[in-house]
């Protein structure tokens, strides 16, 4: 793709500038964003991401453009799954609404830093060890299984990791505005706000393990991997407040993401076989008859899966709501029925 160090520096500088702007313009003063504010900024960041993808397509060719859009769509879907877990954490720690922006902002920055580290490691591994595609493919297939059958079974706010943190750190039972520590009777305590940030940081680490192998299954270009992740995380804070109520209605999101991860896992295994160098597989020779899944098909498959999961989720929750309304109505009729 021919990305120079100067382009990398400019891209990272602009990314940092956007997050600094976000903090001083929206997060520094605690408040709960309105629906209108969240909608405007969500549309701005999504539009900016799409415009950037068009720019990649025009400048570097539409193969790279397609890889970016497939990667962005995958990372955005995984980021929405992040939001669902963030919502569970916020509820578990009873974070006041006016302070949730700060928690989300810190969590998103942590996510970008961790993903940046994983991107660098992944790029180095891919550059030097072609067999890493086998590892990434197997990992994604395992994560797809876990995503499909284990989603929502644990409470991140009260898991073993957070129980360990509570044993190590002296914790104040109450929030003290948005402060991370508080001094009581001459002793320093951490507030629940710090515990929330630690929990979100830990979850970000777990999600980085999902997202980076997934996007490397769509492109080998570290620049596309980074920018797709950065744009997927930009505007995530506003999206949280915009679709907060909708998150709980996306009941098939986990299954949809499982299908996407499994698809990319298979794609990675196919690619690994196509560039095989392992001596115990086909004598160390590539299996050129193994098909390479084209990026246009990947993009269509991912988009269709997200659409089907969303439509099926909304249809199910709507039918469930109607069923509850009928049961409530029928119950009221029975209660108020006149006696013979």
Q: Return Rg in Å.
A: 23 Å
Q: Give the beta-strand count.
A: 2
Order of helices and strands: HHHHHHEEHHHHHH
Shape: globular
End-to-end Cα distance? 83 Å
Helix-residue proportion: over 70%
Assembly context of the chains:
single chain
Beta-strand residue percentage: under 5%
The mean pLDDT is 82
How is the biggest beta sheet arranged?
A: 2 strands, antiparallel
Tally of helical runs: 12
> What class would the helix/strand composition place it in?
mainly alpha
If strands are numbered along the chain, what order do they take across the biggest sheet?
1-2
Low-confidence stretches: none
Task: Describe it.
The chain has 340 residues and is mainly alpha-helical. It has 12 helices and 2 strands, in the order ααααααββαααααα. It has helices spanning 5-27, 35-60, 62-92, 100-128, 132-150, 160-168, 192-216, 222-233, 236-242, 244-247, 253-274, 295-335, and strands at residues 181-184, 187-190. A two-stranded antiparallel ribbon has the order 1-2. Helix 11 runs antiparallel to helix 12. The chain starts with a helix and ends in a 5-residue tail after the last helix.
Provide keyphrases for this structure.
two-stranded antiparallel ribbon, 2 strands, single chain, 340 residues, mainly alpha, 12 helices
SSE layout and pairings?
Blueprint: H1 5-27, H2 35-60, H3 62-92, H4 100-128, H5 132-150, H6 160-168, E1 181-184, E2 187-190, H7 192-216, H8 222-233, H9 236-242, H10 244-247, H11 253-274, H12 295-335
Antiparallel strand pairs: 1-2
Helix pairs in contact: 1-4, 2-3, 2-9, 3-7, 3-8, 3-11, 3-12, 4-7, 4-8, 5-7, 5-11, 7-11, 11-12
């Amino acid at each position: 793709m021919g990305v120079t160090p100067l382009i990398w520096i400019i891209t990272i500088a602009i990314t940092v500038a956007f997050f600094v702007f976000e903090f001083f313009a929206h997060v520094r003063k605690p408040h709960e964003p309105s629906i209108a504010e969240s909608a405007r900024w969500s549309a701005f960041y999504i539009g900016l991401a799409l415009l950037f993808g068009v720019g990649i397509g025009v400048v570097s060719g539409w193969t790279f453009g397609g890889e970016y859009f497939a990667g962005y769509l995958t990372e955005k879907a995984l980021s929405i799954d992040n939001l669902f877990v963030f919502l569970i954490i916020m509820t578990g720690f009873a974070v006041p609404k006016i302070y949730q922006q700060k928690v989300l902002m810190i969590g998103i920055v942590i996510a970008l830093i961790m993903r940046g580290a994983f991107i660098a490691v992944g790029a180095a591994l891919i550059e030097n060890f072609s067999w890493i595609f086998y590892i990434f493919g197997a990992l994604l297939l395992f994560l797809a299984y876990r995503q499909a059958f284990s989603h929502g079974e644990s409470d991140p706010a009260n898991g073993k990791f957070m129980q360990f943190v509570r044993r190590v750190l002296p914790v104040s039972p109450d929030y003290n505005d948005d402060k991370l520590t508080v001094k009581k009777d001459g002793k320093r305590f951490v507030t629940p706000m710090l515990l929330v940030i630690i929990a979100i940081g830990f979850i970000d680490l777990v999600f980085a393990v999902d997202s980076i192998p997934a996007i490397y299954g769509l492109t080998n270009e570290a620049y596309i991997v980074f920018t797709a992740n950065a744009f997927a995380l930009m505007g995530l804070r506003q999206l949280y407040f915009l679709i907060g109520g909708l998150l709980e209605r996306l009941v098939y999101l986990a299954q949809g993401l499982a299908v996407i991860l499994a698809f990319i896992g298979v794609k990675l295994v196919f690619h690994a076989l196509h560039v095989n160098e392992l001596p115990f597989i086909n004598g160390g020779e590539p299996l050129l008859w193994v098909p390479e899944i084209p990026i246009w098909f990947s993009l269509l498959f991912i988009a269709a899966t997200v659409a089907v999961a969303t439509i099926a989720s909304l249809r199910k929750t709507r039918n469930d709501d109607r069923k509850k309304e009928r049961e409530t109505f029928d119950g009221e009729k029975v209660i108020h029925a006149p006696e013979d």
